[in-house]
Amino acid sequence: MTKIKICGLRRSKDIMMANRYKPDFAGFIIDFPKSHRSITPEEATKLGSFLTEEIPIVGVFVDQPMEKVISLLKDGTIDIAQLHGNEPPDYIKQVQDATGCGVIKAFEVKSEADIEEACKSPADYLLLDQGKGDGETFDWSLIKQRPDKPWFLAGGLTVDNLQQAIDTVNPWGVDISSGVETDGVKDEEKVKEVVSIVRG
Predict the structure, then answer these.
(1) Per-residue pLDDT tens for 26-82?
(2) Of 14, 24, 31, 129, catalytic
(3) Which residue is catalytic, options 7, 31, 101, 175?
(4) In the 8-state DSSP scheme, what is residue 120?
(5) How far is 191 from 139, CA to CA, in rounded Å?
(6) What is the overall mean pLDDT for the chain?
(7) pLDDT computed for residue 146 by the predictor
(8) What is the DSSP secondary structure assignment for residue 19, as one 8-state letter?
(9) How many Å apart are CA 116 and CA 187, to the nearest integer?
């Protein structure tokens, strides 16, 4: 069954929604001021303490110092690191070796070659995205050969196109953030609906 990750949780209300509808992963965007969803490591620790233990916490980072990522994995603030910047393979391997935790690496998909390049990554999971975080989809027909490791489809997924996305490319997981928001905040009805769609 397709997994679902709800990303960009930042309020106690968001945590209550996650506890209620139980996505497979909960995502915190950490120290990325360009995003209105960004929270501090301290806020992540506090919010995470209210999240049911059965939902792994994914910390999303953009070109952050490796030491910060490793520290937050080691102290249990997050369970998995998601890297959205220009982190090279060596960075990924060092995080894995230092923590034994999983790493998701995000890749911007503009061509089939981008997917081929993503498949070479040492990351435990891949995330294929439109790239700009502006809620737009990419051309799913580019995914002709599915990655041979767990991978998330991201970018522009909403209650309106989620079933089509699952039927079209059969991703291991889907990653949704703005698609479950209204006016920039998580919308309980949308969270409920996307989890229902994924769980069938």
Answers:
(1) 999 999 999 999 999 999 999 999 999 999 999 999 999 999 999 999 999 999 999
(2) 129
(3) 7
(4) T
(5) 24
(6) 95
(7) 82
(8) H
(9) 35
C-alpha torsion angle, residues 51, 52, 53, 54 (rounded to 10): -120
Strand 185-186 versus strand 181-182 pairing type = antiparallel
* Token representation of residue 136: 């737009």
Element (H, E) at 94: helix 89-99
Please name which of 104, 171, 21 lies closest in space to residue 163, comparing C-alpha atoms: 171
For residue 103, the 8-state DSSP code is: E
* Tokens of residue 187, six digits: 């919308």
Angle at 53 between CA 58 and CA 62, to 5 degrees: 10
Q: Is 7 known to be catalytic?
A: yes
Assess whether 114 carries a catalytic annotation: no
**80-120: pLDDT as tens digits:** 999 999 999 999 999 999 999 999 999 999 999 999 999 99
Token pair recorded at residue 43: 């806020």
| Type of residue at 64 | Q
- pTM summary value: 0.96
Q: Look at residue 145 in the predicted model and tell me its pLDDT.
A: 79
